[in-house]
Amino acid sequence: MFDFSVRQASNGQRPRWRNLLIWDYGPTVIPQEFTNNCRINQAGAHGYCGQNPFFFGDVSSATWRSWRPSETGYYSNSSLTSDSSQYHDDHYGSFMASGYSYIFCASMIHTGRWDRTGGTLRVTYHEDQLTLALVFVGSDGRAV
Q: For the stretch 53-62, what's the b/e string if a residue is b when 16 or more beta carbons lie within 10 angstroms of its beta carbon?
């Protein structure tokens, strides 16, 4: 079992993320692709304001943390946010576990809404920042 932690810290108009995978117990976790998505809140399907795929290193009892991009760095969007929109982030990924042939999916972490405060470079958060529920489903469709 592991924890997936995301720190969101805007740099003016540019959303940024630092990601951490922490091994808790069990077999070695072999991460596949994880993604940070910046989403624009709008009627109907929410738009995208940037996507940042990345790959963690394996985590286990021997190496129990994996930072991306680093312990102090951030991934950031190439596109800038505007002052007239509200946003949220979606974060998700998949992984394998040593000794199992399944690819497991970590359910999406959906952040609360945020926007740039009155056209300034400051960010205001309107809801609790992260809600997380992990349900691990193997390629055979069974919950693990």
A: eeebebbeee
